[in-house]
Amino acid sequence: MSPLPQLQAVGRIHSPYQEKFSVPRQPGLVTAGEARLQLLPPFDDPLTLEGITQFSHLWLIFVFHECLAQGWQPRVRPPRLGGNQKVGVFATRSPFRPNGLGLSVVRLRGVTQDADGLWLELEGVDLVNGTPVVDIKPYVPFADSLPEADGGFAPAPPTTREVIFTPAAQAQLAQASAQHPQLATFLIQVLGQDPRPAYKQLAEDPKEYGVHLYDYNVRWQVQDGRIQVLALDPWPGSQA
């Protein structure tokens, strides 16, 4: 058998998700919020992107870099089965895989270039900030979209929860919107997915949670089945 090629990152994701806890469980569930892919040398040559804007969506092949040290598991607990039932790793999109590779389809908003390099402007990203991308491929609808396919135990996105803001959070949101105009919509989409473990979603849970999005510690809890945003505190050391 020929040796496998050494993987090399062609780019790195810049996204609002500063930790795994907040990342949507599938691409496309959250469309607000800025996400960009910065191409790395020697792949930051504009010739590598020639013709790419003819496609509305792209496949990103990436590395679950924050999970590599934990190794892989032959059986895992997918969130869509409640987080307690185990199935084979190859029947899931779990990050605990033999080679730690993931696959996401994202919307391409455009290509930009500035003093920092060459960028793909993206929407619908489900990747933590700093994720290495090892390949980019165009999404081709006639081959990649199969409406008749069976979705197994994950046939449709989960229902979303209503998201409300306390008066204190609303005031902080108004200040933050100058830098992030879509922040309110972004928080509603992200928190509406209910980032908590599946088993937590089925019981009373008075716990206050915090999630690192952009440069904020977004504090929230569940009350009467709704997600209530309590505060948007600047993350320690940030310029927010």
Describe the protein.
Keywords: S-adenosyl-L-methionine. It comes from Pseudaeromonas paramecii. Belongs to the tRNA methyltransferase O family. This is tRNA (N6-threonylcarbamoyladenosine(37)-N6)-methyltransferase TrmO. With 240 residues, the protein is mainly beta. It is built from 3 helices and 12 strands; from the N terminus they run ββββββββαβααβββ. Strand 10 and strand 11 form a beta hairpin.
Number of strands: 12
| Rg, nearest Å | 19 Å
How far apart lie the N and C ends?
Answer: 53 Å
Which strand-content bin applies to the residues?
A: 25-35%
Main sheet record:
6 strands, antiparallel, barrel
- Characterize the quaternary organization of these chains: single chain
Structural class: mainly beta
Counting H and I runs of at least 4 residues, what is the number of helices? 3
Order of helices and strands: EEEEEEEEHEHHEEE
The residue-averaged pLDDT reads 91
Write the SSE topology.
Blueprint: E1 11-14, E2 35-39, E3 57-63, E4 75-76, E5 87-88, E6 101-114, E7 117-123, E8 132-138, H1 141-144, E9 163-165, H2 167-176, H3 183-192, E10 209-213, E11 216-223, E12 226-234
Parallel strand pairs: 9-12
Antiparallel strand pairs: 1-2, 1-8, 2-7, 3-6, 3-8, 4-5, 6-7, 10-11, 11-12
